[in-house]
Amino acid sequence: VLEYRDLQDSIKPQKVEFHSLNFNSTLHWQPGRAREARDIVYFVQYKVYGESTWQNKDDCWGIQNHICDLTIETSDIREPYYGRVKALSAGVYSDWSLSCRFTPWRETMIGPPTITVLHSNKFIILKLQAPRSPYKRKRGSKIPMTNYYDLLYQVFIINNLLDKQHKDLVYEGKDKVIKVEDLRPGTSYCIVAKTYVPLLDRSSGYSSRQCTVL
What we know:
7% of the residues lie in helices and 48% in strands. The protein has 214 residues and is mainly beta. The chain has 2 domains: 1-106, Immunoglobulin-like; 114-213, Immunoglobulin-like (Sandwich). The mean pLDDT is 92.
């Protein structure tokens, strides 16, 4: 009995948590102490907070990965969800390991906008595009994150002659097309942008750098 309990405890998944970016939501976990056990497989269930029955996630039933995509299952973004995972090794099942409560709308991280740079010899025109969710409109295009949040764009410019680490904020607002003026011809500039959600006081990381020489 002790050996059985030991194995049960040692394979029990650890640190079960949701990770979410633009509503692409996955459940992650770490293996238990018995890392050398080769034949461990995992089983994932989920439910909406307040419901009594757990649902099996068929794609994550008897898997060897430590990650399970629950994007579709958590698509009602204002509902709170739970996930849980158990392990099986040598015919022995662990107990379930439970995630914290996860509400996609409140907890998803928002990605940065994508930037397109058009330039003349004295100014730069930027086109910004909001990150997109995985959820689709009836016509098939992915719904932008601006449908779910009041988003602001923060645009920063880097003068490569002066200091490649120093970023000057040149714009904050909702416009999708921005003109950055008073720039020096012949100078190399890079642009990065962030998405900011005022209601949640949360910023994305920086977009990838778009660089241009006037």
